[in-house]
Specification:
The complex is a heterodimer of chains A (375) and B (324). With 375 residues, chain A is mostly helical. Chain A is built from 14 helices and 2 strands; from the N terminus they run αβαααααααααααααβ. Classes of the chains: A mainly alpha (375), B mainly alpha (324).
Amino acid sequence: MHSKDTNAKNITTQINEPLFHVTKRAQISWQKSWAIRIIAIASSLVICALIIVLITGLNPLTVYSAIFDGSFSSERKIWNLLRELSMLLCVSLAVTPAFKMKFWNIGAEGQGLVGALASAACMIYLGDKLPNSNLLLVMLLSSLAAGALWGFIPAYFKAKFNTNETLFTLMMNYIAIQLVAYFVLLWENPKGSSIVGIINSSTGAGYLPVIGGKQYLLPILIVALVTGVMYIYLRYTKQGYEISVVGESQNTAKYVGINVKKVIIRTMIISGALCGLAGFLFVSGIDYTINANLIGGLGFTAIMVSWLAKFNPVYMIMSSFLIVFLDRGASEIATDFRLNESIADALTGIILFFIIGSEFFIQYQLKFRKRGNNK
Amino acid sequence: MIVTFLSRAVGQAIPLLFGSTGEIITEKSGNLNLGIPGIMYMGGCAGIMGAYIYEHSVAVPSPALCVLIPLLASIIGSGFLALIYSFLTITLRANQNVTGLAITTFGIGFSDFFGGSLVGMMDGDGQLSVMRSSGYFKKTLPFADKLGEVGELFFSYGFLAYVAIIIAIASAWFLRRTRAGLQLRAVGENPATADAAGINVAKYKYLATCIGGIIAGLGGLYFIMDYTGGSWTSGGFGDRGWLAIAIVIFATWKPNVGILGSLVFGGLYIAYYYTGDLGRRVGELFKMLPYIVTIIVLVITSMRSKKENQPPEHLGLPYFREER
């Protein structure tokens, strides 16, 4: 193997030096990093438009205006955008502390689903037994507990036996999905329909109060609050600091006296509980029902949102906005031009490839070979 | 009854076997490719698209091309996705989980889109369906019907089923008995050491991920062309891709054990059909079994912490020579 450190005496260096080499950037100004991201998103949009134009033969500008219309053409669409944004943000916030600790929690889907299941169970069995405010409290607590339990199980084994958490949490998703499928059949209404339908549609028991006539306002506000709290928690508290240290290096953490196992378990309980909160919000404030597809893959999208935002809750508002905006735009194109709506996922995938790739150019720089440069 | 169950379990097992063998080879290089579900969709979708376009562009399709074109299309489709994954994670050093999930999003979206729209784009009618090509994929050995139950159990499958088993056995042999297999494992266990020993880490990772992706893609091809008889249904492939990843754990990263794992999981996957009296509800709980079994295996292997049953040491982690 050729030695990489180019000693002066090594005459062949100059000939063998590759066209360019990669070095890690010491730092990058935020303007520059966002410029790189914007270039990546813009070029992905060009590619997407090109694909749509090839398929449909439409004018690209029509396509772009349709993307914009998908989120902003009516008040209802703006509310839908905000709702989807906040739910994606909620799940992204939930997975973030775990990721910061380098615990790959890809089980947000399952943790959210069991949370939703707990809320739905309370609505069905306690709907006529408790006053609404108490019922909501019981629902909230049981959702948090269910999500926390779903997060605790893999964390416990990770802490105790170093069981691979990525694979463990992934499997927990499908257990949750089947559990929900079981209860959907148990609670199905009407019989034989295989769906639960709107729970307590006549009494409204267990529904979050509607503020100012806007159904989604309260869930959105709750998520906004969680965002702020999470920002402070990660940035200014001792526990947040411990999470960062464990994420950077478990050995360092042990050396300075942090109980790594405790941090792993505690953080995953928080992560799972917040996913449970998302489940609670879906059941009590948005869908008023339960089905195995309730979280709808948010658990996976959230991983990308959190990672794109570098685990910063405030940036996460932007990255989840970006994903929801593009997704709604792609759906709008699909409906407008009568394409199969799966095109939305394909286009989102392309955009993600570009964003993921762009991170390389933010962290590293290519240094091209200079003529006559023998270091 | 038991023979029918077993032969149906085998039918379920084959896509899982392709997927898990592909993922094992990929993971042995240290890449945890969560894009496998999308890649398997893509392999199936590209195959059926190739077959449809071919069947509709010539008057008399030749049997050989009816098999070769879907096969080639599938390899190109899944290989292309695996290449994107490799480029992003190996060359651009992106996070493997994030990239894999993006690949899955893209692969399923792309497949469902073209699976649902190709017929309309080609000015055809009805569903995307390739009966003729599928017939060649499903073709069994001529004497299979005459052998009764033995025939049903062992010879009632199309050629891809046998290919799956051969690939699994060959992969096990490759990983354990060849020099290249040893070097591949070294890359997955400790890339810095492998690099120091003069192994081209990036090359091994690229090759393992792309070949693994192509093998997994064949699982999608088998599912579409053989199991479902050559017609596309949106989302028909279901969560089999994730199940394939589960089998990797169950098999403790050994492709030959993967054959057993696929059969067990294939059986568990359809076990709920046979819970008749217990009803649909219990059926849903039965579908949970493969995942519970996987978790139990995962926990037990980590508790016993025997070296040979562990995930590759460097699984899921990127490798930058400059940062070791």
